Amino acid sequence: MKIRLICVAVALSFFYGGFASTKGASASNASSGGKKAEKKDADSGGEASGTGSSGTSTDADVPAVSSPDATASAGAEKKKIVGDPVVLRIGRKEFKRSHVLEDMKLLPPHLIRGIDPDKLFGMLRDQKMSAYLMVEQAKKAGMDKTKEFIERLEQMKEELLARAFLMREIALKAESEPALRTRYAKYVTEFKPVKENHLYHLVVASEAESKAALDELAKGKDFGEVAKAKSVAQSREKGGDEGFVPIQILPSPIRERLQVLKSGEYTKEALKIPGQGGEGTYHIFKITESRDSTVQKFEDCKDALKQMVVQEEVMKLIDRLEKQYKVEKFNEDGTPYKPETASAAVAPKAS
Predict the structure, then answer these.
(1) Contact 97/62 with Cβ under 8 angstroms?
(2) What is d(CA 68, CA 76) in angstroms, rounded to the nearest whole number?
(3) 131-171: per-residue pLDDT in tens?
């Protein structure tokens, strides 16, 4: 079920969403290939094991995983992947590489921007494993036959229908050049500069690695050099340079660490951000000069404009439907609900 990707999406949003949302840079969806067919699973007796339509896939059908926005590391060779290999086997149940890539396509591009592609693939593969194991145990326990589960399933169907309706009604408008140009003109008119800092970011996979990195920084080694040598974030190639970021829009755990830093300082303790299965990553930050944000060029904030158009069109659609169906709202105590004054639309984040 595609709903299993929610956990990964939330984790990725917490890991990297703050940085990705500040830049308005575009990201392409990860490629996926190979058509799926199904056959009965001899062990579970119910769920199918997917294979390519001809049993195998060509390299062109299933391209190598690539970072959504990234260029390859200098001197790194692109992986040569033949066909559509099995990447997970549980008993006689097999999951192929194309199945994981299909899941990757469902993640919002801005959430996976800047993440090492091998780590992302591993996260999605492990998430698929966890989901399958839990589903099998739940079935053995008869949980799929309970009243609560059936009611929840109906609720999920309604949610999926609502999303499908929104996609049909709004997706084309989000890709409309005139609509984006109109929203850009509004952004320029409403723009107000905010303070932003040049942010550097170093990510490692363990506490021991974070302490080793901090030791090198304490000895006076350049932050960029340490990031290039140790960081697992995509920005490592640029010495951890994340560009200019308005600190106040970052997630609160990061914002609290950065607000006390002066220009040229770095965080003396790594911030642990939880991940899947109790694991996590350790983050070290540095800020340098401060400046006032400036109006972005249209092409630089096109993705952010698309999000705004979608948000505004959703609000218009819901408002129209509320009137069409004569909706009445009440407070928790049963008194008539009075909506608060709508806040102004948020402008694209400065890069």
Answers:
(1) yes
(2) 17
(3) 999 999 999 999 999 999 999 999 999 999 988 898 888 88
13 with 125, same domain: the answer is: yes
**265 plus 198 within the same structural domain:** yes
Give pTM, 2 decimals: 0.43
334 — phi, psi (to 5°)? Answer: 90, -5
The Cα 330–Cα 15 span in angstroms is 37
DSSP state of 334: S
C-alpha to C-alpha distance for 263 and 236, rounded to whole angstroms: 21
Contact 288, 222 (CB under 8 A): no
Same domain, 229 and 307: no
Q: What is the rounded distance in angstroms from the CA atom of residue 314 to the CA atom of residue 165? A: 11
Cβ-proximal residues to 18 (8 Å cutoff; 6+ apart), any chain: 249, 250, 251, 254
> Which of 111, 145, 179 is the last residue before a domain boundary?
145
Q: How many structural domains are present in the chain?
A: 3
Structural domain of residue 326, as residue ranges? 146-191+299-351
Distance CA 322, CA 326 (A): 6
| CA–CA distances in Å: residue 39 to residues 33, 156, 179 | 19, 26, 46
